[in-house]
Amino acid sequence: MSDVNIGDVQGIPIIDFAPFIDGSNKQGVADAMYRSFRDVGFVYLVNHGLPKEKIDEMFDWSKKFFAQPMDVKQLAPHPPSGTHHRGYSAPGIEKVSQHVYDSDEITKIRNAPDVKESFECGREDSEHMPNIWLPEGILPGFKETCLGFFWACYKVELTILRALALGLHLSEDYLVQFHAAPDNQLRLLHYPSVPLSQLKNDEIARIGAHSDFGSLTMLMQDNAGGLEVENPNRPGEFTPATPIEGSIIVNAGDFLMRWSNDTIKSTVHRVRAPPNLVSADGMTPERYSIPYFSSADYTKTVDCLPGTYSAENPKKYEAISAKQYIWQRLAATY
Fold first, then answer.
1. Could you tell me the pTM of the whole model?
2. Does the keyword Iron apply (predicted)?
3. What's the pLDDT band for 332 if we cut at 50, 70, 90?
4. Are 87 and 119 in contact (CB under 8 A)?
């Protein structure tokens, strides 16, 4: 069998996911994925099963949406509540300030607005977070493309969860049974072009250092760059997660870290100016990305995964429902 590890980017493994999908080396992929989540919390997947044409189509529609006048985008407004992540958020509305505990530092961070805009949606029949769309007749085809891409991502998510379960020495469907709803979120992101000096001087930000809340995140990014991942062994040291053609980046979330009794890492990451950028006009290029956030079903209560605790390494956490955990985190962060 060929090695499923085909390289790395600044220590983040690149894994060929095809041998899991076609069954030729399921355990090899599963073990490689688990090691990556255990050691780094991030992994690049190639041959992941999400068709390139679908990714390209979603990016095209994302650009069409964000190119609309502000008064049009505001016809699908994100609610003021930090727990209802649906609809459109304008630049500077959201500000992430996680993993910072010094009051002066928090004030400094909150005074540097996140210059990004976003649109978020989920499944149409969600009773927890109903979708918020543009009115009928405005940007026809956008809603249908978003929903189609959401379900395409969900299909890939389940395959990734099966691989991760095997890597944890659980039955292949162990994690899938907790992700049946799906209570997930598709986010379209646009980072406008901004002065490079303001980013470097922390006068403004793209998105500050944070970890994700749920089980895992699948990230599609354009070629602009700017994503940085913290070294889990050296807090405060960030390295670029350079875009790789044809790949998606997958990272573990806080809920999965808790669920695994901290066996798996939910690693802090951020978006800044692309590395080594030299701009004649002093501006950083705009950036588009599409993260898909996977959460366990809100109705499910989870305890530490079998095999992640023992008499020598006891459970660190009480059982908790996914809804309770995620909503607590959302309300406290935004």
1. 0.91
2. yes
3. low
4. yes
